[in-house]
Design a protein that fits this description.
alpha+beta, 3-stranded mixed sheet, 15 strands, 44% helix, globular
């Protein structure tokens, strides 16, 4: 058993998630693929108050990069889309793992109800793709007079496309202006055979190991959430890995339960510590970033309570609409409500709320304004302005730093 401090646990976590240091070189397309491979899954979300979740999560780790590289990787079948933690981009090398789960778990009861209600229409959409090639949802005109746009009010053809995508009959061949382009699995991956998918026991073993590696360390209750796996099967797989001495047991100060890490990840982290004892990274997180997927894990590691408040009624929001946590040197120090006004080339921080223990000093202001400015430039809305700050006296210091950069 390896005793570790809470700070070590935090640093191991941010190391595994790619946040220990700022990038030392300009990003390249290969870095996008390497990040997705390292994380195992990159969550997709459609909200575009700032950059959409997958593009933003990559910026958080890479800094300035071309978002179209992710689209190119999808079109090249270097990554694929699948329901994992949620809708995610996943490295193509892991396709067999997720395809086996798809085969074993299909159909979900609510998908089955969809099909039972609209069998004729769903079959017609699949036949249309077979006969006419790849399609977007927008290729089908809505005929019921509704505007739609939300998942519970999809037109029938959109539901059909999503049904066959969830079933694995269709895949996403590419995206055009972020719209999914659906095509038959055999046309997207013509060499794939379902007989190549590993058995379910091997799949769980691989995904449990990938989850722990991506998190850096994990309590048993955290693991299933990463890829949304069966909790019972995950605990059984974890016990087997522990019995086989495949994992390193970590005793974190103040935690009653042991955490687990991959020995090679721990050794790599220790090697990094010898070179760079202290993390130096200030960045902004998407609310859908894998570092903070699990709110219980976020609370345990960082003592940071986080809620995606855009899903709450306005009256129940405490901090704002679209909140972005701020990571500074292995600590979650603040959250901000931001919006990119692309047409006006302005990046608006509506409010910035620091944790009570944060020392809001000159050095932090420099780091934070530099990060916010880089984020604004990458969004092609380079004029940064901050409207409100808590503590309010720190707003003047931040505005002075913004003025120095103009």
């Amino acid at each position: 058993m390896q005793p570790v401090t809470l700070q070590d646990a935090r640093q191991l976590s941010i190391y595994a998630q790619g946040f220990y240091n700022l990038p030392r070189k300009s990003a390249e397309k290969v870095d996008v693929k390497q990040n997705i491979t390292h994380l195992g899954a990159l969550q997709i979300d459609t909200i575009n108050i700032v950059a959409r979740a997958p593009y933003f999560s990559l910026w958080s780790r890479l800094g300035d990069y071309d978002p179209d590289w992710l689209n190119q990787l999808l079109a090249e079948q270097s990554v694929f889309e699948f329901w994992a933690h949620a809708a995610c981009f996943i490295p193509i090398e892991d396709f067999g793992l997720h395809r086996r789960i798809q085969i074993e778990q299909w159909p979900h009861p609510w998908h089955q109800r969809w099909y039972d209600d609209y069998k004729t229409e769903f079959d017609a959409v699949l036949n249309h793709v077979k006969e006419n090639g790849a399609v977007k949802s927008s290729d089908f005109k809505r005929t019921d007079g509704k505007k739609g746009g939300t998942w519970w009010d999809w037109k029938i053809e959109k539901r059909a496309l999503e049904y066959w995508f969830a079933a694995g009959e269709l895949m996403i061949s590419k995206r055009v202006n972020f719209q999914r382009v659906y095509d038959l699995r055999e046309r997207v991956l013509p060499q794939w055979k379902d007989s190549d998918a590993p058995d379910l026991e091997s799949v769980y073993r691989s995904l449990v190991l990938k989850s722990i590696a991506a998190m850096g360390l994990a309590l048993p209750g955290w693991i299933a959430d990463y890829f949304r796996l069966s909790k019972k099967t995950v605990l059984s797989t974890l016990k087997q890995l522990i019995d086989e001495k495949c994992l390193l047991e970590l005793k974190v100060e103040g935690w009653d339960e042991s955490a687990w890490a991959l020995p090679e990840v721990w050794e790599d982290y220790q090697a990094l510590l010898r070179q760079t004892p202290d993390p130096r990274c200030t960045t902004i997180l998407s609310p859908f970033d894998s570092l903070i997927w699990d709110r219980a894990r976020t609370k345990k590691l960082f003592n940071f309570d986080f809620t995606i408040e855009c899903y709450l009624p306005a009256a129940k929001r405490k901090y704002g609409y679209f909140l972005l946590p701020i990571l500074h040197d292995a600590k979650l120090i603040a959250r901000m409500d931001a919006k990119s006004h692309r047409a006006d080339k302005k990046f608006e921080v509506k409010s910035l709320h620091f944790e009570p223990w944060v020392a809001a000093d000159h050095n932090l202001a420099q780091n934070l304004v530099s990060t916010l400015s880089n984020c604004a430039v990458w969004h092609k809305s380079p004029e940064l302005f901050i409207e409100k700050c808590d503590p309010p006296e720190f707003l003047v210091t931040l505005q002075q730093q913004i003025a120095k950069r103009e």
